[in-house]
Amino acid sequence: MRSHQVLRRTLSHKHIFTSLVAIGVVVGSTLIMPSANAMTQPPGANDCPSGYAVAFANKSWIGTATHGSAADVTKYDEINGYGCFLRSGNTGYMRFRWDAVGKVSATSFYYQVYDCTAGKVAASWNMNYSGTSPTNYGTAVNKSVVLSATHKYAGQVTGSGRYSRAQSNVWEGVLGYFTTPSGAKSLGSPAWFSRTTLCR
Q1: Where are the alpha helices (DSSP H) in the chain?
Q2: Cα–Cα distance for residue pair 10/171, rounded to 1 Å
Q3: In CA terms, which of 18, 37, 58, 105 is 20 to 30 Å from 79?
Q4: Whole-prediction pTM value?
Q5: Are strands 73-76 and 79-88 parallel, antiparallel or unpaired?
């Protein structure tokens, strides 16, 4: 078994970029690429409870995006975040979980209640992995917050970090990355972010 790496060089604005555009593993004569469909997760874990609005984030990449050129990265949808938001009177309920093709490391997920009226985050919680996560999914967590009776709200998820595309603890040559909207703007990469479509 051996890893295949394909490198591409692009010349733009007098800068040379090198990006990793494909990583696979050869078994015999077959090239195997990691697939988001191969995730292991608890049955029904993706579903939000009845009545909850859903925010779903999944944009990730491999390679290096620099100088605002998103063309320098190869995009994948390999790490998923599920945010579930419900307003009941003056209480907001937020539920969050994630899953990926492999374990994550040096990663932070944020699940938030967004105040649509004020245009800012009203409440934020995080799920951090300073080391390697024990599994390739996070058990769902539930939070609640008191809301203003005169404001409308939405739920949103974001985060940044890296994950193993080899579906293992191998952290060399087979990494995927994801980042927040602010990180994506500076890198020129896809943003890992989603907000529920309606303010309630």
Answers
A1: 181-187
A2: 26
A3: 18
A4: 0.74
A5: unpaired
Distance CA 152, CA 90 (A): 10
Provide CB contacts within 8 A for 139, sequence distance 6+: 42, 97
- Residue carrying structure tokens 């191969």: 38
Which is it for the CA torsion 57, 59, 64, 65, positive or negative? Answer: negative
Q: How far is CA 45 from CA 31, 50, 120, in A?
A: 31, 13, 29
Distance of alpha carbon 177 from alpha carbon 122, whole angstroms: 27
pLDDT in tens, 151-171: 999 999 999 999 988 766 666
Tell whether the torsion through CA atoms of 177, 72, 182 and 80 is positive or negative.
Answer: negative
* 142 contacts 94 by C-beta, under 8 angstroms: yes
Q: Which backbone phi and psi does 70 adopt, to 5 degrees?
A: -70, -15
Q: How far apart are CA 22 and CA 74, in angstroms?
A: 8
